[in-house]
Structures are given as structure tokens and as C-alpha cells.
Amino acid sequence: MKTTTPLIAAAMLAGLTLASPAFGEDTLYKQLGGYDSIAALTDAFLTKAGQDKMLKRFFVGHSTGSLAKIRQLIVDFICAKSGGPCIYTGRPMVEAHTGLKITNADWDESNEIFGIVLKALKVDKDLQKKVEAFVGSLKGEIVGK
Amino acid sequence: MKTTTPLIAAAMLAGLTLASPAFGEDTLYKQLGGYDSIAALTDAFLTKAGQDKMLKRFFVGHSTGSLAKIRQLIVDFICAKSGGPCIYTGRPMVEAHTGLKITNADWDESNEIFGIVLKALKVDKDLQKKVEAFVGSLKGEIVGK
Amino acid sequence: MKTTTPLIAAAMLAGLTLASPAFGEDTLYKQLGGYDSIAALTDAFLTKAGQDKMLKRFFVGHSTGSLAKIRQLIVDFICAKSGGPCIYTGRPMVEAHTGLKITNADWDESNEIFGIVLKALKVDKDLQKKVEAFVGSLKGEIVGK
Amino acid sequence: MKTTTPLIAAAMLAGLTLASPAFGEDTLYKQLGGYDSIAALTDAFLTKAGQDKMLKRFFVGHSTGSLAKIRQLIVDFICAKSGGPCIYTGRPMVEAHTGLKITNADWDESNEIFGIVLKALKVDKDLQKKVEAFVGSLKGEIVGK
């Protein structure tokens, strides 16, 4: 019997990236500066969102350990979907957001914060557009569930 | 090499109950009416708490699946600690509540709701006192973290 | 905005049971003797399976805590699917077994152990048939993945 | 009331690294080449360990999804402890290994594989020593539990 190695199994799980690079182009993961940049981006976003009048309600009911898990899952998700060597092991997007009743206004506020963070981290305009397209593609799985 | 069976391993994990019955007395689990009663009690409590002005903030940021996990962990915890055949597999109480900043006022409100629920489910006075003593013993691990 | 209470959300998650009772009949959960019987059944099964030459390979790589989680998820699953007040919060059956390469021989061995356990716990013949039909209905989601 | 932001909470959780760099020196995370190198190292190690006669027993009872979680937790652990921007959200080392009955021989085999992998990935001798010292410091929490 052939044994699938953990590595191959993991690779199969990782699946296709949401944002496949054009031929000869770097992955979005690389363009963003790799893991450290994605982690910094996520932390800056969560810090701002956790203090935002409209969005902070989503963070209040979570323990420090629960917030750490959410943070790590977001980093893993972005890393995995942008072509980095992470595996996202959380629930599918729809399931993870069902019941949260995230509104269009929440989504817009969240995107505004994200834009500010991308700018603060000096992500260039072209790349910012790609990242925003990537985030935008998730809206249907997150809002109104 | 001696193999510890999963059952024995599980039993070791379950540990001592918080509320050991006096010699010859039923466990608190049995006195409460077993698992079904504990599940009904937990569901009634969570329903009321989720609608309560002061407490609902703890539930807003959780998806339906996340709330289901919290519910099941609470049932498992009460079941295990009262002497029932459940294993609590969640994080230790202090860790699970650190960062939630649960206040004394939250705790009192929560106990008031719990009392109403015990009464509505026709738990008799003596038993209610035992349950409240059991819940009371957890305060130090939950409030002000 | 109407708020779905945690209880209702949990109930929705619990979904339909695999083994709906005929009109006027008790649920399989009740017929089995409720939670305590299901827990005893699961523990007896896991103890035997963990010592079985053919099946013990599935348990070797799990820590005590990991085995406790598996045990609790099995109890929750049987409880929920047989009509009891539990919520199964684990991964879907197929996902939970993909990669385990459980063979038909493993499945048969497992069923034989399960039959011995049902007999030892004095489950009557009629009920044993219902339980085995319930377990049998899961084979396609568990074997050969 | 002062609100601890998710970022700060996460940072507090991350705690001290096992391998603090000397003054002015890069973290072990940086010396290793950051996240991508740690992920490659972990994948190469797990692939070899999963095929190893002595060690493969630890991987047999895990689904593809379970292996992916283990892989991701190992990467997160090494990243976090070596000074990288990851948070390890798994159970403490002792708890995660209790019941596995990892022997000294397993540990030695595992270290031999790890050494081969470090060499294959062209980690230089000095750095290899540091990494092995770091891994060695974990032995007491992993073996014989």
C-alpha cells in the first residue's frame, strides 16, 4: 500500500491559491514581502479593528487565547491563499462567519481600516489593488451570514 | 510495555469532581437528573444570557459554530465536574476567561439568571443551594481576568 | 434586528437525527438509556479497540488529551445523531476519516467488537439491530478514505 | 477602562522566546531564514519521520486534516520560540505529548532525521548547533510522558 506522506497530504490540503500569479510572476505572498509582512499587516488591522467603534463588538466576547487563535488563523489563511507555505486549518469561511451577521457597513468599515493599514505599511498602489481584489473576492462568504 | 487504554486515560483526565457526594449520597450529576437536565439548564441559561442587556456582549462576536462549541463545553464541564461521564476537553477556566474582563456586576447578573433558570426548571431549594455553591466556587477563576 | 439566541442557533446546528423514531416511538437515544449508556458503550468500545491487534494502530499516535477529545466527540456524535441533547462540534465524518485508510477488514473487526460490547452491556436484540443499522449507515463516510 | 488591543494581547501570549539572541544578534528565526525556511524544515522532517520504521507509528492514526494541524502547530511553535511573528496556540508541550510514550530511542531517531534534514537544507554548522540546542532543551517535556 502506498503511503501518502504528511507533507504531500498537507500540500493537497493547502489547495489552490485564490490569487494565482501570472506566468513568471511572483506569488502575492512574495510580492507582499512574505510571512513577516502578512503577520504585521494582520496585527495592525486587528489592533485598529479592535478599537473601532463599529467593529469592536466582534472582539469583546473573546478571551486572549481565543483572540490569539483568530489572529493566527487569519495569518495562516492569507499566507495559504496568497501562495505561502502555510496551511489554513480553520473552518471554511462561510461556516466561520455564519451567525456573526456582518453587515455591508461593517465590511466597508473593515475595508477602510485595511486600506489605511496597507498605506501605513507602505504597500505600493499596484500591490494594494491586488490585495484588495483578493479580499473583495471573499465578501460573499463573509457578509450577511 | 503496558498500554494504558483510552478509557483509563480518559478517566484519569476527568479527574476529581468539584462536588464529591457525601458517603452513600448520589453525585450532584444524578441529583440534577443527569445529562439531559444539565443540557436543558445550560441551554436555558445561555438563551437568557444571550438576550440580557449586560451579558449579550459576550456572545455577539461568535459564529453559530463557535457558540455551539461554547455550549457543548459548558455542558461537558458541568457534567464532568458534577460526577457525570463526560470529559471536559476545553482550556482551564482561568485561561478560558483571561481577557474577557468579566466584572462582579456581570457575575451577579449571570447568577441571577441562573437562579431564575433553576427555579423555572423546578430544581428544589436544597439542590439549588448545592448547585449555586458549585458555581460560586468557580468565581475566582472567571471574574476579573 | 432579530437576534437568534444561542439556544436556537445550537438547535439548528444539531440538525436532523440519523435515526428518527417512528411516530410515537422513543428516540434511539432514549431507547439506549440516554447519555450515560452511550458514554459507557463508547468507553467499552474504545478500550477494546485500543487493545485490538488490528485496530490499535489508530490510537498509538494520540496523546491522552487527544484520545479524550476523540472519545468525547464520538459520544457527542452518537448522542446528537440518536436524538439526544448534544451538539457534535467535530469535523464532518468524511473529513475526519480522510487519510486514515480504514479498510473493510478494520470496519468488520470494529463492528465485531461493537457487537460484543452491545451484548456485554445487555442491549436487547431488537435495539442492537437498530444501533447496528445506524452504525452501518456511516460506513460509506468512514471506510476507504 | 483601558482596553488591551488584540495585538498586544497576542504579543503577551507569545511570551519569551526559548532562544533569545545575544545583544545585537539576529533572532534564531532570522538566522534560519525566517518562516519559509522553518516551514520547509518542518515539512522535510515530517515527511522523513512519517516514512521512518520506528517513528511512523505516531502518524498512522491521524487523518489528513489532523496531520495538517500537527504540521501547522509545529511550524508555529518553532517560529514563535525562535523569535518569529507567530503565535503557538496548541497545548503546552508536556500535555501535547503525555500518553505518547515517546522513548529515548524515538528521540534519538528523530534527532538523527532532523540532523539529516538540516544538512540537506544546507544549514551551516554553527546554526545547526544552535537549532539542536534549542530542540534538545525540549526533551524533558516530550520524552517518557
How would you explain this protein's 3D organization?
The structure is a homotetramer of 145-residue chains. The first copy, chain A, is an all-alpha fold and 145 residues long. Chain A has eight helices and no strands. In chain A, helix 3 packs across helix 6. Residues 6-16 of chain A have low confidence and may be disordered. Chains B and C meet through helix 1, helix 3 and helix 4 of B and helix 1, helix 3 and helix 4 of C.
The stretches of 5 or more residues of chain A where confidence is low (pLDDT under 50) are: 6-16
Count up the helices of chain A. 8
Q: Count the beta strands of chain A.
A: 0
The average pLDDT score of chain A comes to 89
Radius of gyration of chain A: 16 Å
Main sheet: strands, sense, barrel of chain A: none
User: Percentage of helical residues of chain A?
Assistant: 55-70%
Order of helices and strands of chain A: HHHHHHHH
Largest interface by residue count? B-C, 39 and 39 residues
Anisotropy-based shape of chain A: globular
As an assembly, this protein is homotetramer
Termini separation of chain A (Å)?
43 Å
Question: Which range does the strand content of chain A fall in?
Answer: under 5%
User: What structural class do you assign from the helix and strand content of chain A?
Assistant: mainly alpha
